[in-house]
Amino acid sequence: MGIGASIFLLALGAILAFAVNADISGLDISVIGWILMAAGLIGLVITLWFWNSRRRTVVTRSTAAPVAGTGYAAGEYHEVRQDDVPPPPPPAYR
After folding, report:
1. Are 45 and 3 in contact (CB under 8 A)?
2. Which residues are listed as membrane-spanning (predicted)?
3. Fewer CB atoms inside 10 A, N or C side of the chain?
């Protein structure tokens, strides 16, 4: 559920809970409004948490400098995790 759907459920639930005074046999409109508001709030929290956790970590990979005369990189491999840093472009190999 996205942010828009969550806000829609919150608004619809608030309208049903606070503005509608209809009587339906065996159905309480106010309770349905509160349930929709709770579902919208839970959906909003989950959506924001998912977006926040998805953007947190960027992996940067690098290798050692090329060995002199061969054009190949040494066997050393290094990986660093940083917050909110875009990854560098891939190296150009000959």
Report:
1. no
2. 32-51
3. C
